[in-house]
Amino acid sequence: MKVIAVVGNGIAGSEAAEAARRVDRDARIVLLTKEPYPLYSACVLADYVADRIPLERVVLKRAADFGRDRIDLLLSKQVVEWSADARMLRFEDGELPYDRLVIATGSRPVVPNLPGFNKEGVVALKTLADAEQLRAARGGAAVVVGTGPVGIEAAIALSRRGWKVTLVELLDRVLPRLFDEPLALILKKRLEDHGIDVFLGERVLEVQGDARVEAVRTDRRILTAETVVLVIGMRPELSLVDRKQVAFGDSGGVRVDRHMQTSREGVWACGDCTESEDLVTGRIGLHMLWHNARLQGRIAGANAAGAHRQYPGSLNVTTVNIFDETAASVGFLASELTGNEMTVLHKKAPWGELRLILKDQCLVGVQALGSTDRLGGLVTMMMQGRNLRKVLLKKPAVSEGPAGWILRGLQRDLRRLMDAD
Ligand SMILES: Cc1cc2nc3c(=O)[nH]c(=O)nc-3n(C[C@H](O)[C@H](O)[C@H](O)COP(=O)(O)OP(=O)(O)OC[C@H]3O[C@@H](n4cnc5c(N)ncnc54)[C@H](O)[C@@H]3O)c2cc1C
């Protein structure tokens, strides 16, 4: 019997196993994971830490769900060696020969090589075990290092638990990869209004304490804390894989083709451990978002079972909830672009703020604060013909309701801008 092995049971691996089953009713499908849990959503871990949702809302699938699809789910089974030539996976207490392999090993938090970062009380927010650790912590004061979306969500969650929270960021604004200065400043203010201290342009140098965290030393001050949440970034988790087995891209992720196939015959890869093309910017890189991982998993799994499906590319719309307000970003930031060909249109409205980045008359970036209703239409604009003049000749993509007038208003502004050239 043909064996399809999937390593990693995050959303990518889980979807890959299911998709493989839909294509091949007879193969043996084995899903191996070092996690003790079947499948949960990382996206809602912060809400679980904040006690806003119960564990049942975090868990997405149970072992029985995999059993129904005749997928052999092997929990707490870390694959420690992959013999690509022999088509063999090894774990602590056994081995698995396979015919087809899907690598879905996801990502791991970046840990700086600085003193004290291995102390008790330093946590990343990546797994359900991390969330349980934060829920079980005594409380008091926490320092969150890094102001990406996960750092912001972690800070808000702990603040909601009644902790005193300080955010420390090396760069000069919060959410630096998602928002330019004007909106980032507003978001920082929102955090501060809720009692979170935000220190920007500050470098963390050391975690102090004996066995446990007692304080964090930065290049400007010492912050007392019982807990440090370290969220300075994610890297592909590829300790199992080396560059002789499959090709890696410049981003450090596994390189795959449109079919999610790696450079090695019989091996596919998907999710956070792979690189892909951004549908809006065209950039090849790591696009670590849930819906990208899910679609990549479906395609990799189906193709490993014999289908010929193509991945269209990654859609990187990132949304962050800052207390009760939503902020979203897609495409290029103005700070990433230079030159006369770049224009910024910043619109304030009763529902929030919108910042549009145009390059060579094409919409290449959108940042929104408040309502995100109009994002869909704007993303379509970005992906369509690319020349905004063409987009403007069309009828508004959203023709009725409040989103309709907002979009029409935007098109009016954009027309004025184009006509001014
Ligand atoms: C706190 C948090 C919040 C997030 N919020 C959002 C959000 O709001 N929206 C959004 O789009 N994205 C969000 N993301 C990102 C999103 O969760 C990820 O992009 C997605 O979960 C990636 O799925 P994956 O299956 O590729 O990887 P992972 O979820 O990392 O899963 C990989 C699995 O492989 C296992 N594994 C690794 N190596 C081995 C091995 N050698 N042997 C066996 N098993 C192994 C790991 O234990 C893990 O279970 C968030 C991420 C985090 C951490």
Task: Explain what the structure shows.
The chain is α/β, with parallel strands linked by helices. It has 3 domains: 3-109 and 234-304, FAD/NAD(P)-binding domain (3-Layer(bba) Sandwich), CATH 3.50.50; 122-230, 3-Layer(bba) Sandwich (FAD/NAD(P)-binding domain), CATH 3.50.50.60; 325-420, Enolase-like, domain 1 (2-Layer Sandwich). Helix content is 27%, strand content 28%. The chain has helices at residues 11-23, 45-49, 55-58, 63-68, 128-136, 149-160, 181-193, 290-304, 375-383, 388-393, 401-420; strands at 3-7, 28-32, 39-40, 59-61, 71-74, 79-83, 88-91, 94-97, 100-103, 107-109, 122-123, 141-145, 164-168, 197-199, 204-208, 215-218, 222-224, 227-230, 234-236, 267-269, 276-277, 284-285, 318-322, 325-331, 342-349, 352-359, 362-370. Helix 1 runs parallel beside helix 8. Residues 398-403 have low confidence and may be disordered.
